[in-house]
Write a structure and sequence with these properties.
Blueprint: H1 4-18, E1 23-28, E2 34-36, H2 40-47, E3 52-58, E4 61-66, E5 70-74, E6 80-85, E7 94-100, E8 104-109, E9 116-120, H3 145-152, H4 159-164, H5 174-184, H6 197-219, H7 222-229, E10 257-261, E11 264-268
Parallel strand pairs: 2-9
Antiparallel strand pairs: 1-7, 3-4, 4-5, 5-9, 6-8, 7-8, 10-11
Helix pairs in contact: 1-6, 3-6, 5-6
Bound molecules: zinc ion.
Length: 284
Amino acid sequence: MPELPEVETVRRTLSELITGKTIQNVTVSLPRIIQRPDDIEHFALELQGHTITDVGRRGKFLRIIMDGLVLVSHLRMEGRYGVYESEEPIEKHTHVIFHFTDGTELRYKDVRQFGTMHLFHPGEELTQKPLMKLGLEPLDDGFSLEAFTEVIGSRKTKIKVALLNQEYVVGLGNIYVDEALFKAGIHPEKVACELSGQELARLYAAIVQTLSDAVKAGGSSIKSYVNGQGEMGMFQHALQIYGRKAQPCVNCGAPVEKSVVGGRGTHYCPSCQPFVAAVAKKKQ
Ligand SMILES: [Zn+2]
């Protein structure tokens, strides 16, 4: 599943490729991708004649911004966008095609069919599902240590579980939570409200750095997108802890451990991320 850095890379790529293009018409061959409005004919009709002015992002949702409309799109497991010339053959699993007036097309392909699109008038999208309850945006300038401490530092759940909750901080999935906790030297099962101010500050910095590095790494895959592979895939970059079970820790050489936290496979170094039980913990 794409996490924030992957979606951010798709956003930047799409922004370069489709900003300024005007929609002539839209073809939908899998109605359930379109969540709003209910009627796909209405969806297609609404979009006709609108020009794309920017591509934004909120958490893992893309916001394709037009003059007078906003399309909120979530790629879920396998969703992919690609820009094609209209005469190019249409690949299997292509469910939505935005035909532009310049003869090119934005095609949405989704093998698993879990992706969603919601169409709104500008501003409306932030007060309704699926964006309304989303938490802090970690790559925004406004993401401060104070705000992070307030939102995360009060939670009585395990820190990993708190970080995965999109109502607190958006865009962190299983991979980058493990990476950020490793970078900050914090055990994933520590209780969020028992973290010290220093630990929260380290974690805050680690989240920003982990996500920024991943976005930078993602930039290198833009070339393949433009060069006619036609789609934006996931990119691999150096992960320091995730997926490295039993391999030596990059810091200390101890074997990386894997456990399950909040139902998710979790990687950590038992030596760099020690679990010190809080003294004040109540016995049940
Ligand atoms: Zn280690």
